[in-house]
Design a protein that fits this description.
This protein is α/β, with parallel strands linked by helices. It folds into three domains: 1-69, DNA polymerase, domain 1, CATH 1.10.150; 105-294, Rossmann fold (3-Layer(aba) Sandwich); 305-358, Winged helix-like DNA-binding domain superfamily/Winged helix DNA-binding domain (Arc Repressor Mutant, subunit A). It contains 18 helices and twelve strands. The strands form two sheets. A nine-stranded mixed sheet has the order 1-2-6-5-4-3-7-8-9, with helices on both faces. A three-stranded antiparallel sheet has the order 10-12-11. Helix 1 crosses helix 6 (61-70), helix 8 runs parallel beside helix 9 (149-159) and helix 11 crosses helix 12 (235-245). The longest helix has 16 residues, at 121-136. The protein is elongated. The termini are far apart.
Length: 359
């Protein structure tokens, strides 16, 4: 594993090239110590053999391994017993995974939750509610630690005392956890019994080129992928595409036809993704119990006709107060006072801009 890590620090040695080296030499140590003429026989392509000869002079395997130990970073290969089984089943799985926190993800049942960095209030509520209920139902929530939907999903799982796994497009060492705004969140994930992981070696900064591989791992780890808000060209849609390629389930939360952040999710539904209106839509695809069926339902018994009209009109899709007034045919003053009372009871919520949802 020490020499796997050392080789992994050389740019250009992806999963396929590493498998060629391992198959030819029988061990990463022999590959590391081979001279350039021997490396040239592996047919790595281009001048990669010469590059290995040059780059390894700058790398001390012992020193680099000590750095992993100092930050409690565990390295897994596909031969490691703790390497995630689902990830091993995808085409060309990562040859190395760096882990902090829980290392045996095979004991987790994982669903990935992804979406826009520029989430709306509706997206935040959907991510928080669905991720919380997934965690309460026994799933581990996987996401990418990004701002927006990713962070909301991680936080909701933690608040439900559940497990969550963050897959990074950077190294997992303290200096390179990205985005820096979520550094404390990453640490909390580790402390809570979850995991922070990456196929990039420590010392790798995040860049535009590192995230596509991250999305592939998120989908590969999970039984299914839930997309909550995604623009027409969104990284979340790349994750969903990978999930389909891996023959995994894809779920999508519907959104307003007027919102640019719902174009991607609505198109996923149009193309066959399962609509996720609540956690039950996800749980019924797997052998998981809907915890809400065993819990006493919070009764919403309206005290008057005005409350009943409003509750009948609202759903989890935000509805503006003007449209609510047209549907309920209530006077403005009556509508406003009744909405305030229902908010106090915790039955509805203003998600911003005078848009309301039922809770």
């Amino acid at each position: 594993m020490k020499y796997l890590h050392a080789l992994n620090k050389i740019n250009g040695l992806g999963p396929q090239k590493m498998r060629l080296l391992l198959g030819f030499f029988g061990s990463y140590e022999r590959a590391w110590k081979a001279d350039v003429s021997e490396l040239s026989r592996v047919k790595l392509g281009g001048s990669l053999a010469e590059k290995i000869g040059i780059e390894r002079k700058k790398i001390d395997p012992e020193n680099e391994w000590e750095k992993l130990l100092l930050e409690n970073i565990i390295l897994l290969s596909p031969d490691s017993p703790d390497y995630p089984d689902l990830l091993k089943k995808i085409h060309n799985p990562p040859h190395a995974i760096y882990m902090r926190g829980a290392t045996n993800l095979n004991s987790f049942h994982m669903i990935s939750v992804v979406g826009s960095r520029n989430m709306t209030a509706y997206g935040l509520d959907a991510a928080a509610r669905l991720s919380k209920e997934l965690a309460e139902s026994g799933f581990s929530v996987v996401s990418g630690l990004a701002l927006g939907i990713d962070a909301a999903a991680h936080k909701a799982a933690l608040q439900a005392s559940g497990h969550t796994v963050a897959v990074l497009g950077s190294g997992v060492d303290d200096m390179n956890i990205f985005p820096r705004a979520n550094f404390s969140l990453a640490k909390e994930i580790i402390r809570s019994g979850g995991a922070v992981m990456s196929d990039y070696p420590p010392g790798t900064p995040a860049s535009n080129t590192t995230f596509p591989a991250r999305n592939r791992i998120i989908a590969g780890l999970s039984l299914g992928t839930l997309v909550i808000e995604a623009a027409e060209k969104s990284g979340a849609l790349i994750t969903a595409k990978h999930a389909l390629e891996f023959n995994r389930e894809v779920f999508s939360v519907p959104g307003s036809i007027f919102s640019p952040y719902s174009i991607g999710t609505n198109k996923l539904i149009k193309r066959g993704a399962k609509i996720a209106m609540d956690v039950g839509d996800i749980l019924e695809e797997f052998e998981f119990k809907d915890i809400r069926k065993d819990a006493p339902a919070a009764q919403k018994n309206p005290e008057n006709e005005e409350e009943k009209r409003i509750l009948d009109a609202l759903s989890i899709v935000p509805l503006h107060i003007d449209n609510l007034g047209k549907l309920t045919r209530l006077e403005t003053a009556t509508l406003s006072s009744t909405l305030s009372m229902l908010e106090i009871k915790g039955w509805i919520k203003n998600v911003g801009g005078q848009n309301y949802i039922i809770t």
